[in-house]
């Protein structure tokens, strides 16, 4: 018999234990060991059985146990202490408040939009790295005191759970989540009715969503949920699955996240008195429609015209791209966007705005497609990639939006991702190194006095814990594949707690090449079975349900690992999630990553390993490209320039085997007289000391605050003062510029060497030009000379720029010092100039000399 509906009964807590309810719903427990210990002590067995989830613990622990604890003075005292600690955490001034005291103009609050948030496995609302990054972003914002509001969707089935068939094929199932059983609170009107946001849909329909709030330390996370009987059936399923449906389903989700998300933020702030955000951060382009909602607000509440509103929206928006290839960009057929935003349909979305203006925001080369990343860039004054390398890749990929500019001038910067130390570093390590809970992995002040042998002992105990977990999970996986306990005795002896352990876990898109290690199975077998220096490998990862290629790769790994001669040295563990990730990143000695460079925008799991003293063995892609220093791990040489993917994989796999057998394994097994691997431990120490602070999401969030949020808040204020005078001025300026721009001309450029003769390195030249400004005022523009190296097709590189000044003769002139020897070139160009622009490339307008 199956239930027709499901619901969750929350435990009724005795009055004396009411603080446990608060402690269970504020997700700070996920990174606060003392709170976890308190819950564990409620009932250690139930705690283990529910996988360390406080709400489930409270629901399942026998009522008698709770009433006994309600009279247990020792337990009550510990509860009070943890509760007081949480209150302090939530109220005392932190880094952000200090920054404000130093006089920095910082935003009153920041709204952070993302389609997924991975805060804890107890709230499975994420699929992979993007979501975990968003969760870590909120946690660090909380630790730093950044007044942030997270915004996203609550999926009825979260992401799928992964199991394996007996043949090793990925099987997906979608457990239905009841929000009332999750650490969430539904927002209600003062009347007690659910607080709803409404978004107009075509044909005059309305999509309604309730708002659930997860409390992530100091940061509220608002999650929209359309599973309401008031919604039409098809609309009701809008938030059924993460990345599940077709384009129509996805655009509805994105309209809800962006437009509905903005409305949820407004309603939440009005309800609670939380300051309204001044800066809006879109984590990838999916929530980009929030810009349209803000245009609507500015139009309706402040009477701004479309172009003026765009200026105001841009000033306060930060856009982060995570995509390294055009194929990865989120796009919709233009007709679909027209269907949702066209005149006559969703009127309440962008009233009075001609549809073609909306469509122009997402225009790309293909006139049939609407490009969410292009809209993101057009609606954000500040944009960034997620590692230095990816910043460069993004500048190249999007340079078409800024024609005429050098790639290095494209206004897309980079903020390298980070991971939340208190979530991802093993608590035992922090204890050993004497860290406080606030700076796990961040400074390692206490490392010097800790001996190699103590640190090694700890690494061994973390490996042992992983081995136990591997055995437990492997047995469980085999039972799901149809084996009986009777034939699974061998699972208890897979892996060896003394053997060099390599981990590989991440989602399974093709570019991450989970099967690269199988390129030469005999080489791999030899490494696994080496009599003196064996390695063992643990692999995990989910394939997108629609990606057959990914499932084939998983099956290949599983079938290899199923073989009797190697199954004690290589395992595939199904259902990779944050809880498995914690075992893996803390217990593995080596973290392997072999994407096709440069397709890994950043990658973060290797950072989690580094926080635990794991050594990275990785292709120089994403974060590793900038942080590998020759002593903190190994770089797998990449076959740059080899275009045949088969040959490239052969070459890179061979390099991987070679590195493991000649460097990684020998270093691991080379022991001092006390049994400690001395050189290995020096690499571990170096990793903890130098990468520890750099890979933290607290470092990342501080960078966002200083380089993106603070400047965005200043820009937003500058365009908004005096009833959006600045926005109107820029809109006027842009209109004036557009009208004149095609007639602006530069002619008669000439260069003369000062003192005559040949140009010399470090010598000076004078450049002159005639410029017709087509009626623009000289103060509207910057005329500059650009001098640099030239390649065979005369493209300028490594150039320097110098502003030119008007001469009495009516032309422009500048003196430049020659920066390089060798083939050089120069040109003259006219650029927009306005104090409210973030830089000369912002408007994507430039006139280059033609003669
Ligand atoms: C950290 C993490 C990821 C991201 O890993 P990458 O190395 O960036 O691919 C994905 N899934 C889970 C569960 C994680 O914890």
UniProtKB/TrEMBL annotation:
Keywords on record: Allosteric enzyme, Carbohydrate metabolism, Glycosyltransferase, Pyridoxal phosphate, Transferase
Supply the EC number(s).
2.4.1.1
Which InterPro entries would you find in this protein's record? Answer: Agluc_phsphrylas, Glyco_trans_35, Glycogen/Maltodextrin_Phosph, Glycogen_phosphorylase_DUF3417, Pyridoxal_P_attach_site
What reaction gets catalysed by this protein?
A: [(1->4)-alpha-D-glucosyl](n) + phosphate = [(1->4)-alpha-D-glucosyl](n-1) + alpha-D-glucose 1-phosphate
Q: Which gene encodes it?
A: glgP
**Name of protein:** glycogen phosphorylase
Q: Which organism is it from?
A: Saccharopolyspora taberi
What family classification does the UniProt entry report for this protein?
Belongs to the glycogen phosphorylase family.
Task: State what this protein does.
Answer: Phosphorylase is an important allosteric enzyme in carbohydrate metabolism. Enzymes from different sources differ in their regulatory mechanisms and in their natural substrates. However, all known phosphorylases share catalytic and structural properties.
Q: Which domain of life is it from?
A: Bacteria
Tell me the ranges covered by the DUF3417 domain, including all copies. Answer: 13-123
The cofactors named for this UniProt entry are: pyridoxal 5'-phosphate
């Amino acid at each position: 018999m199956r239930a027709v509906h499901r619901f969750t009964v929350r435990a009724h807590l005795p009055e004396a234990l009411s603080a446990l309810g608060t402690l269970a719903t504020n997700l700070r427990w996920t990174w606060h060991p003392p709170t976890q210990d308190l819950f564990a002590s409620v009932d250690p067995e139930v705690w283990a059985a529910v996988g360390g989830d406080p709400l489930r613990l409270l629901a399942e622990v026998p009522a008698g146990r709770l009433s006994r604890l309600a009279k247990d003075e020792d337990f009550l005292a510990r509860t009070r202490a943890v509760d007081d600690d949480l209150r302090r955490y939530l109220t005392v001034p932190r880094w952000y408040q200090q920054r404000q005291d130093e006089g920095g103009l910082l935003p009153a609050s920041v709204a952070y939009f993302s389609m997924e948030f991975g805060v804890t496995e107890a709230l499975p609302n994420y699929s992979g790295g993007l979501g975990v990054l968003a969760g870590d972003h909120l946690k660090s914002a909380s630790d730093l005191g950044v007044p942030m509001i997270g915004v996203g969707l609550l999926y009825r089935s979260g992401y799928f759970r992964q199991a394996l068939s007996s043949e090793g094929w990925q099987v997906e199932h979608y457990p239905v989540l009841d929000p009332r059983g999750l650490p969430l609170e539904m927002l209600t009107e003062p009347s007690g009715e659910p607080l709803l946001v409404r978004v107009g849909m075509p044909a005059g329909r309305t999509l309604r969503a309730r708002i659930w709030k997860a409390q992530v330390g100091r940061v509220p996370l608002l999650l929209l949920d359309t599973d309401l009987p008031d919604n039409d059936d098809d609309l009701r399923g809008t938030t059924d699955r993460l990345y599940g449906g077709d384009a129509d389903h996805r655009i509805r989700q994105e309209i809800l996240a962006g437009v509905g998300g903005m409305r949820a933020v407004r309603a939440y702030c009005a309800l609670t008195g939380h300051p309204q955000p001044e800066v809006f951060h879109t984590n990838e382009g999916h929530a980009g429609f929030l810009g349209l909602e803000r245009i609507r607000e500015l139009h309706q509440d402040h009477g701004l015209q479309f172009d003026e509103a765009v200026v105001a929206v841009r000033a306060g928006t930060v856009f982060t791209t995570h995509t390294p290839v055009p194929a990865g960009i989120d796009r919709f057929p233009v007709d679909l966007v027209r269907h949702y935003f066209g005149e006559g349909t969703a009127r309440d979305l962008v009233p009075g705005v001609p549809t073609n203006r909306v469509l122009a925001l997402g225009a790309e080369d293909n006139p049939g497609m609407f490009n969410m990343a292009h809209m993101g860039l057009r609606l954000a004054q500040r944009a960034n990639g997620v590692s230095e390398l990816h910043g460069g890749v993004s500048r190249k990929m999007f340079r078409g939006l800024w024609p005429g500019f050098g790639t290095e001038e494209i206004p897309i910067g980079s903020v390298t991702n980070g991971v939340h130390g208190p979530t991802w570093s093993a608590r035992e390590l922090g204890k050993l190194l004497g860290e406080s809970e606030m700076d796990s992995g961040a400074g390692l002040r206490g490392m010097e006095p800790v001996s190699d042998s103590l640190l090694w002992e700890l690494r061994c105990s973390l490996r042992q814990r992983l081995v136990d977990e591997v055995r437990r999970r492997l047995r469980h996986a085999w039972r799901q594949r149809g084996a009986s306990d009777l034939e699974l005795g061998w699972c208890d002896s897979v892996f060896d707690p003394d053997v060099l352990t390599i981990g590989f876990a991440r989602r399974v898109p093709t570019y991450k090449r989970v099967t690269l290690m199988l390129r030469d199975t005999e080489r791999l077998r030899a490494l696994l079975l080496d009599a003196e220096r064996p390695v063992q490998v643990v692999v995990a990862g989910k394939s997108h349900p629609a990606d057959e290629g990914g499932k084939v790769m998983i099956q290949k790994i599983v079938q290899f690992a199923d073989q009797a001669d190697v199954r004690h040295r290589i395992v595939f563990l199904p259902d990779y999630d944050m809880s498995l990730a914690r075992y893996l990143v803390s217990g593995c000695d080596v973290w392997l990553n072999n994407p096709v460079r440069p397709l890994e925008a950043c990658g973060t799991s290797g950072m989690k390993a580094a926080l635990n003293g794991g050594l990275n063995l990785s292709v120089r892609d994403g974060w590793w490209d900038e942080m590998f220093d020759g002593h903190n791990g190994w770089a797998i040489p990449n076959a740059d320039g080899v275009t045949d993917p088969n040959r490239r994989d052969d070459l890179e796999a061979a390099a991987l085997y070679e590195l493991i057998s000649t460097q990684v394994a020998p270093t691991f097994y080379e022991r001092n007289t006390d049994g400690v691997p001395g050189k290995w431990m020096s690499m571990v120490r170096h990793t903890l000391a130098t990468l520890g602070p750099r890979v933290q999401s607290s470092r990342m969030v501080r960078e966002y605050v200083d380089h993106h949020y603070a400047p965005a808040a200043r820009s937003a204020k500058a365009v908004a003062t005096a009833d959006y005078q600045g926005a109107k001025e820029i809109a006027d300026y842009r209109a004036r510029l557009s009208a004149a721009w095609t007639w602006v001309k530069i002619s008669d450029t000439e260069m003369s060497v000062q003192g005559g003769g040949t140009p010399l390195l470090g010598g000076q030249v004078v450049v002159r030009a005639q410029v017709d400004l087509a009626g623009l005022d000289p103060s509207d523009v910057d005329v500059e000379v650009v001098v640099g190296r030239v390649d065979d097709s005369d493209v300028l590189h490594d150039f320097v720029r110098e502003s030119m000044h008007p001469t009495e003769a009516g032309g422009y002139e500048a003196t430049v010092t020659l920066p390089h020897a060798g083939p050089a070139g120069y040109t003259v160009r006219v650029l927009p100039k306005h104090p409210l622009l973030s830089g000369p490339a912002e408007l994507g307008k430039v006139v280059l000399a033609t003669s």
